[in-house]
Design goal:
The chain has 150 residues and is mainly alpha-helical. Helix content is 57%, strand content 8%. The protein is built from three helices and two strands; from the N terminus they run E-E-H-H-H. A two-stranded antiparallel ribbon has the order 1-2. Helix 1 packs antiparallel against helix 2. It is elongated, with a radius of gyration of 26 Å. The N terminus is likely disordered.
Length: 150
Amino acid sequence: MSMNADASIIAVQGHGSTSSQPGQAYGSNLTTRHDHPGKRIAVPVRVEPKVFFANERTFLSWLNFAIVLGSLALGLLNFGDSTGKIAGAAFTLVAMFVMVYALMLFQWRAERIRQRDAGPYDDRRGPTVLVVVLISAILINFYLRFVHAE
């Protein structure tokens, strides 16, 4: 069977594809003597434009956060004392990390959407790493402010 780039193959099971055994999910792929092999059909996959826009909107949200964090860092670097300058440098590094991470995530998702890959497109580690890095920068700031007070 020939298939173009805009179609994906899915399997369609016959009528006897469900299992009546306890603990098995309805519609599972267990074969019994009553099962018939599934036939394969080509179904075109349509990617809605809203998927591309959602990816871009998420990218812009990450960049908005990075710009706010970078502005805070710039204020600390320009108007802070020595402890503020160290914290400003830490927040600058975090803001740059967020910008690079957001770009990589945007490109990864856009490529998977263009290739019409099945999801999931969620990111489970990125926000957790961001929170840990931000809390670390804040704790360093508090440590420098209260332990090494001038």
